[in-house]
Amino acid sequence: MTQIRKVRLLKIILLLLAILSIFLFIRHAPAILELLSSMDKFRDFILSSGNWGPVMFILFQMLQIVVAPIPGEVVQIAGGYIYGVSLGTLYTTIGTLLGAALAFFFTRYIGRSWIERLLEKRNYKWISVMKNEKKLSVFLFIFFIIPGLPKDLMVYLAALTPISSLRFFTLLLVGRLPWLIASVVIGTTIHQEQYGVAILITIISVLAFIIGYFYKNKWIELFSNSEKKEGKL
Q1: Integer distance in angstroms from the first to the last C-alpha of the chain?
Q2: Quick one: pLDDT at residue 158?
């Protein structure tokens, strides 16, 4: 199969997956949101799927990234609530990477012009930073590691830049993994009724968000300047 045919096939697959994701959400949105309104309801639904339970959970996590109205933290916390720390982290991470891959490659190969127009209308202040290639990797890592920021939107935006997919997904995984684990741990402790631990992790997450949000620009400048100095040595 030639390279052109491979790219064409990839575009078709991505388009079909994107259409399927949107169709499933539109058709089942009320039921999905109802399930996610209660940990116990969501847990019962996933466990009632039997051996397909992990697949269903991963699909929910993927759909959460592709379709904005689904709250990501709820699904991640539910991962720990249903499966515990180890399996919850594994399934949540797999769903995060697959959902991010769908959004990233769809934007890069198919929906570039549409996403660009959407972002121009929103006029986000940090878009100018993304245009600076030297600061791009640092910005993405800091953005991913700060809890509470719109990370799913950043996947679409990063796909518009020249960053390699390997580099992007490495930054995504390293930056997001600590807080994915934290969310899963919260879910596990809630299920085990260890509310003190859940509250403590939540407080740490909120403090990390506040500090990260107000100092992110300084950190970007600091790490960018460090890269420049290393390049001169």
Answers
A1: 45
A2: 85
